[in-house]
Amino acid sequence: MALCARWILGVTAVLLAWASANAVRAEESGMLELAVKATFLYKFQPFVIWPASAFPAPAAPFVLCVVGKHPFGLLLDKVVEGARAGDRAVTIRRLATVSPDDHCQILYVGTDDPVVAKQLEAPVNGAPVLTVTDEIKEQTAKGIINFVIADNRVRFEIDNAAAMSRGLVISSKLLSLAVSEAAGP
Predict the structure, then answer these.
(1) Spatial separation of the C-alpha atoms in residues 91 and 84, rounded to whole Å
(2) Is 149 part of any domain?
(3) pTM over 0.70
(4) Bridge-partner residues for 90, per DSSP?
(5) CATH number at residue 105
């Protein structure tokens, strides 16, 4: 009986260790995904041209806004720390709601709910703001850029027609990296 109990304890310990290792890998994978998305958010800006009207003043900062859920924590701050967008300082604004007065150039919409995504993005609809959503499936709720996971990698879709309708010009280099280019809503 003691031998059987030791065997069960041994098997249980191995199973717990395996489950723990998988949980750690899943957590590390989730952190890596967030780090990649945070980096992409900042790295999109050199590949997009905004009209002068997107900035309230010639020396205004380049503003990256996050509305809804804020999944990045301090990752985004670390990515953009000391960064510049041309001659402009880069600032991050975390918002409960967004308005045109926030002067966002990039707006990350933190929700996977298409109805909420549409509501959060509505105040800047038509403005020269690069909207970025995260794994939204419904075409009409996606931002200009929508993060997707393809082949276990963070990728993105681009709706170039929506970008052009807002006065944004997306580089052909960035367009070539997208997993798909949407035709628009």
Answers:
(1) 9
(2) yes
(3) yes
(4) 62
(5) 3.40.50
Output the six-digit token pair for 168. Answer: 């944004």
Q: Please indicate, yes or no, if residue 31 is contained in any of the structural domains.
A: no
Token digits of residue 31: 């952190």
Q: What is the spatial distance between Cα 116 and Cα 96, in angstroms, rounded to a whole number?
A: 12
Task: Kindly state the helix (H) or strand (E) to which residue 76 belongs, with its residue range.
Answer: helix 75-80
Domain count, the chain: 1
Contact, 100 vs 127, CB < 8 A?
yes
Cα separation, 135 vs 154, in Å, equals 10
**Domain extent for 78:** 37-181
Q: Which two tokens stand for residue 94?
A: 């975390």
Parallel, antiparallel or unpaired: strands 180-181 and 153-158 = parallel
Report the alpha-carbon distance of residue 82 to residue 185 in Å, rounded. 37
Q: For 139-179, how does the pLDDT look when each residue is reduced to its tens digit (9 = 90+)? A: 999 999 999 999 889 999 999 999 999 999 999 999 999 99
